[in-house]
Amino acid sequence: xxxxxxxxxxxxxxxxxxxxxxxxxxxxxxxxxxxxxxxxxxxxxxxxxxxxxxxxxxxxxxxxxxxxxxxxxxxxxxxxxxxxxxxxxxxxxxxxxxxxxxxxxxxxxxxxxxxxxxxxxxxxxxxxxxxxxxxxxxxxxxxxxxxxxxxx
Length: 152
Prior knowledge:
Elements: E1 4-6, H1 7-29, H2 35-56, H3 63-68, E2 70-72, H4 93-115, H5 122-150
Antiparallel strand pairs: 1-2
């Protein structure tokens, strides 16, 4: 059975997903003993909030076209984040960075599956390509910041 959803429904899901991640990192920021790890978790949580904010402010000119578009929904298996799925952030910085990269790579694959569908309009493809670019940029920034924090 094929399931179809509007892009607006997918965006709602993504906002929730990024909110879950942000909340997870903020929760653990206050519980870890390492100041460096606290700084990294705070930084990552701000990135998650920024992505969540971008999702709520889709470009006005294409907003209706993008949000009302129906797509064949590709299930995102990592949609519900449980504590068991996420590495205990009490680990070292490298493990947390790898976890962030793994989650971002899952999102990138999800976005790419949507883009590859036939019949997807240009504005919708551009929207998901922008999300891919944001995730790639986030990965670079997290790696750079983690290295700076480790060198403190």
